[in-house]
Specification:
The chain is of the alpha/beta class. The chain is built from ten helices and ten strands.
Length: 289
């Protein structure tokens, strides 16, 4: 008998729109039929829609721990996570900046990265959930190379045999030959040279950050490697907010999520758009099939 892949779905913070977009996505006729989608149950009497609390955060955390254990034990093939409220989670002892870092720890992964992919853009981030003031000091040649390789591996796994990856500069005008910063000269260019030792993948740059995303949306590149969180997510969410998916690269089993937050102000109003959640479920099914 052919084994049917099992994909878990966490509710996120159930006081937000997570349960609504999950319900709508699971009812959509475009949901793949080659996988078993399983939501993680919780007690709805403990939450008030639109009002995040310690109780709703605990439900979110318990679901994350259960999903991680199931993945670790090989009892689930992938997880799609609903949006969480990081402040509420951290108030009850969540020791991670986000779900990406949580699954990296719980699954014992040694090299992961945050990637978002939509209809128009695919971006990966060298630094993730850190203050903007700390970005330049956190960049290293090794981290840029590591993230670039994870991004290339993902693109190859999606059927792109020879990926074209544009590497963003950090500074305005990509540093203007050192006039606006030396990170492009001292870190990013050496990292690109090292990455290009892999003849299957073409890395180019450092590209001017305010222009490269237009070329990427014109399909001149398959993905953009970005130096920090908002550098990649602002253009992606502008163009692909309703269809983008967050995927953690480098995990032993896939973890994906929609690209939006909890939207507590919309909870319980039947106004939440399930498109990103549906796309996350579709992509999870494609990856594990």
């Amino acid at each position: 008998m052919t084994r049917i892949p099992r994909i878990l779905i966490t509710p996120g913070d159930p006081a937000g729109i997570g349960p609504e977009v999950i319900h709508k996505a699971l009812a959509d006729s475009r949901l793949p039929t080659n996988c078993r989608f399983e939501t993680i149950p919780y007690d709805p009497s403990k939450i008030i829609l639109g009002e995040p609390s310690r109780a709703s955060a605990q439900i979110a955390l318990d679901a994350l721990e259960y999903a991680a254990q199931q993945l670790r034990d090989g009892l689930a093939d992938a997880v799609v996570t609903g949006p969480v409220a990081k402040e509420q989670l951290q108030a009850i002892g969540f020791a991670f900046p986000g779900q990406t870092e949580f699954f990296t720890d719980r699954l014992g992964a040694t090299s992961t990265a945050m990637c978002l992919t939509g209809k128009h853009l695919t971006v990966a981030l060298v630094t993730i959930h850190i203050p903007l003031a700390e970005v330049a000091g956190s960049l290293t040649v090794a981290e840029i190379v590591r993230t670039g390789k994870l991004l290339a591996d993902y693109l190859i796994s999606r059927g792109i045999a020879a990926p074209r990856i544009a590497v963003c500069g950090l500074n305005p005008h990509a540093g203007e030959n050192g006039a606006f910063g030396r990170e492009e000269i001292e870190l990013i260019s050496p990292a690109i040279a090292e990455l290009n030792r892999d003849s299957l993948v073409k890395y180019s740059g450092p590209h001017v950050p305010d222009a490269i995303f237009r070329d990427a949306t014109d399909q001149k590149y398959d993905a953009v490697l970005c130096m920090y969180h908002d550098q990649g997510l602002i253009p992606l969410k502008l163009l692909d907010f309703d269809n983008a998916v967050n995927i953690t690269l480098g995990l032993p089993r896939p973890r994906l999520s929609p690209d939006h937050g909890t939207a507590f102000s919309l909870a319980g109003k039947n106004l939440a758009n399930p498109s990103s959640m549906l796309r996350a479920l579709q992509l999870a099914a494609e990856i594990v099939s």
